[in-house]
Amino acid sequence: MFYDHQQIEKKWQKYWEDNQTYKTSNNTDKPKFYVLDMFPYPSGAGLHVGHPLGYIASDIYARYKRHQGFNVLHPVGYDSFGLPAEQYAIQTGQHPAITTEQNITRYEEQLRKIGFSFDWSREVRTSDASYYKWTQWIFIELFHSWYNKDTDKAESISSLIKRFEENGTEGLNANQNDELNFTAEEWKEASAMDKEDILLNYRLAYRAETTVNWCPALGTVLANDEVKDGKSERGGFPVFQKKMMQWSMRISAYSERLLQGLKTLDWPQPLKDSQEYWIGKSQGAQVKFNVEGHDEIVEVFTTRPDTIFGATFMVLAPENPLVETITTAEQKAEVDAYIEETSKKTERDRMADVKNVSGAFTGSYAINSFSGEKMPVYISDYVLMGYGTGAVMAVPAHDERDHRFAKKFNLEIKKVVETDEDIQEASFDSKDSVCVNSDFLNGLNYNDAKAKIIAEIENKGIGHGTTNYRQRDAIFSRQRYWGEPVPIYYKDGMPYTLPTSALPLELPEVEKYLPTEDGDPPLGNAKTFAWDEANQKVVNTNLIDEKTVFPLELSTMPGWAGSSWYFLRYMDPNDDEVFVKKELADYWGQVDLYIGGSEHATGHLLYSRFWNMFLKDRGFINHDEPFQKLINQGMILGMSAFVYRIDGTNKYVSKNLVKDYTTQAIHVDVSLLKGTTDELDTEAFKAWRPDYANAEFILEDGKYITSREVEKMSKSKYNVVNPDDICAEYGADGLRLYEMFLGPLEQSKPWNTQGLSGVYGFLKKFWNLYFDGDTFAVSDEEPTKAEYKVLHTLIKKVVYDIENFSFNTSVSSFMIAVNELQKIKCNKRNILQPLAVIISPYAPHICEELWSLLGHTESIEFEKFPVLNEDYLVEDEIEYPVSVNGKMKFKISLSAQLSAKEVEEAALQNEKMVQILEGKTPKKIIVVPHKIVNVVI
């Protein structure tokens, strides 16, 4: 029977949509299972075959769990704020909302063609006002919260105000920008403005001057993970370090909890390691040093206070505020030039560059409180303002970077940890030795010395033992248009939140999407974007009078804001009253399976955990972590094609003739190749782009053969394969099976369209099991033991594979089972009916059609998954190879139930063995049950 995949797939996709087959109910007594894919950004290019890999895997698992009787939540939505739509708006003037809508329409069309079992009724988009209303609401809650270190959680700012009214800062243990000290009376006497200023020191969403990655070409601040090698990831524009007033999120308050929480998660270890490194916990001491001739002190954090006697110089971060104060007139020009040069590097670049040594002397000296010696104070880009205090005490004998710095600037290197190595040549960084040249620490090991010096530091009143974290607070401002407006207005320069009744604060219309002439963000171009406090509404900016009408915040939220809580909104996507009902958050709880790329390790995955913990602290949800199990899918790589242009000409030489010429390799679109071969369609190539119209070709055997190379699949490499084309030729089920068949989910693997024919052949074989010629022919006859064995072998393998995410080996098992059933001409209902259920998570369209032909009126989706019966896998007979003196002589079939003694007797009585023995008695007989018989004579 002809397998018409196009007709079958259209039919069932329409059926699923019309019947809302995958719509999930919140009202059920079924156990829940929440399967989620990382939020897709709808780009203009649409999907290529690499994108659906993770979606297919999660879809298989979601379908499998439905077959097991779970109430499965498997939603889809779009992270629809983003730079590409805005860049397109700047270039063309088209509103980003229009571009985004067009892109989403294209994405959805492609996703539906692949047959995903998404609950489309729960679709969310971060750029919809009905969604970002709640992103803004969460921001307001963060603004009105502080972190109480005593209770180790976020609390309402009203509880902090109450503490100030009763005790001032006495006994306060809070996460804060600066350590403030005031009494209850001083708080009460402070002006309203001063009180607001004080509270900003503690709020979880706060505004402060911060060193940021500023990209002039994009007109915005970028997060560290959006910058690569000093350039913006999008567009490759130069990025500079700059101080600006910015909104920040106090994620640093959660560093320890984020670290400890990793222990409870079933995540890939490399991803956990990335977060652990990013958070960067270290224990040591905070120590203060006086600066000669100045009132200022330099405070450092060190993990090796035991080496303080070996500190011979100090290094400040170039952006440290102390630099301006302590730099002498003679050194000012050199220091200023160095600061200017450093501003062109991001923090990440500075951390990564361990080879180059550079710096400038400030002209000032700090005093080592223990050795009493003067230490020159330098600045260098290897010290970061964001980590510790923005200053280090340099111990060159026992730190590699300090050692390189000391050698470059000819500074003293003093050994304070015992070693036979020459510390003038290389640093000795071990903790396994003892202190020397260190006064009262001499002879002590690392742990004892560290404890003793910290006690002495505290005794002198110049510092204390402490724990430090590398993770900095997250910048939460973007000087862009296409993002969530921040629900803040300014009165006398102080930020106040809009009332929640005014949400959503919608994005206003603007004439242009670039910053204003005054350098304000694009929202500064809006005509209706001011807050009328008296009438509680947004009004024309001309009405700003700083009395009742005030300016609104002109920055927008970063790209990660909307994706930090979307997994919660899917639980209750259309609620106008709350971001999610508590009982629904309690029912759905954590995402049970989350699939996505490892590139989000220190961005989205960290911010989501932070917001989830905050919302739990404030009592809105009950679970600690958002994603219990996470799998990083690998990439599907493209097979790029190259032509070779002879230098200085428009002549192109075929692959195997290249050695005779000086050429340049040029990417060519894989769609210009003939069929599935490597041969270039030269006429199509000439028509591809104007500069190739007059191309000449040097052929081999009358053909132009391209060279091929496996690379990342991307539009810029012209190696993109469109899933629509694959679905048209091989079907969505073919695409789904092939992507799984390519290899283990977590690994990267190359795409090869030629390989699809094998999977398509399998689908045709599977289809024809149910037919006799063109007639649907399934028998109600009871299957044989051999037929049941094939089925239950498959059940056992597929259940194991799905539960261990080994989807590629399942596809192999399908092929083996179908081949075996075809060989024994099986057409029994009791075999073919469960077979359709087993294969349906992978190939849902064909299985729905077969299920319907089997006489069922309901979808196959909720049919119980076949249960394994091990009895069918027990062998009735065992074929024993019989060896004599280690050489196999013959085979004998015996009942599987026989004991070893009975097997021995049967082997000896066999007429072939009687002939071999010729009346002799064997010296030894070895029987390995169900395996082998070995006779020694």
Distance between the termini: 60 Å
Overall radius of gyration: 35 Å
Q: Which percent range describes the beta-strand content? A: 15-25%
Poorly predicted ranges (pLDDT <50, ≥5 residues)?
none
Specify the biggest β-sheet: 7 strands, mixed
Secondary structure tally, helices: 28
SS-derived structural category: alpha+beta
Shape: globular
Instruction: Give the rounded overall mean pLDDT.
Output: 94
> How many beta-strand runs?
36
Helix content: 25-40%
Notes on the protein architecture:
- With 937 residues, the chain is an alpha+beta fold.
- Helices cover 32% and strands 19% of the residues.
- It has 28 helices and 36 strands.
- The strands form ten sheets. Strands 10, 11, 12, 13, 14, 15 and 16 form a seven-stranded mixed sheet that branches. Strands 25, 26, 27, 28, 29 and 30 form a six-stranded mixed sheet that branches. A four-stranded parallel sheet has the order 2-1-23-24, covered by helices on one side.
- Strand 1, helix 2 and strand 2 form a beta-alpha-beta unit.
- The radius of gyration is 35 Å and the shape is globular.
- The mean pLDDT is 94.
Give the SSE layout.
Elements: H1 5-19, E1 32-37, H2 52-67, E2 71-73, H3 83-92, H4 96-113, H5 129-143, E3 145-148, E4 153-156, H6 157-167, H7 184-189, H8 192-200, E5 205-215, E6 220-222, E7 227-228, E8 231-232, E9 240-249, H9 255-261, H10 269-279, E10 281-291, E11 297-302, E12 313-316, H11 322-326, H12 332-342, H13 347-352, E13 360-367, E14 374-379, E15 391-394, H14 400-409, H15 446-460, E16 463-469, E17 474-475, E18 488-491, E19 494-497, E20 530-532, E21 537-539, E22 549-551, H16 566-569, H17 582-588, E23 593-596, H18 604-617, E24 630-632, E25 636-646, E26 651-653, E27 663-668, H19 682-688, E28 696-698, E29 707-712, H20 723-730, H21 732-741, E30 749-750, H22 756-768, E31 771-772, E32 775-776, H23 785-803, H24 807-823, H25 829-839, H26 844-853, E33 877-884, E34 887-895, H27 900-909, H28 911-917, E35 924-928, E36 932-936
Parallel strand pairs: 1-2, 1-23, 12-14, 23-24, 25-30, 26-28, 33-36
Antiparallel strand pairs: 3-4, 5-6, 5-9, 7-8, 9-17, 10-11, 10-13, 10-16, 12-15, 13-14, 18-19, 20-21, 20-22, 25-26, 25-27, 25-29, 31-32, 33-34, 35-36
Helix pairs in contact: 1-26, 3-4, 20-21, 21-22, 21-24, 23-24, 23-25, 25-26
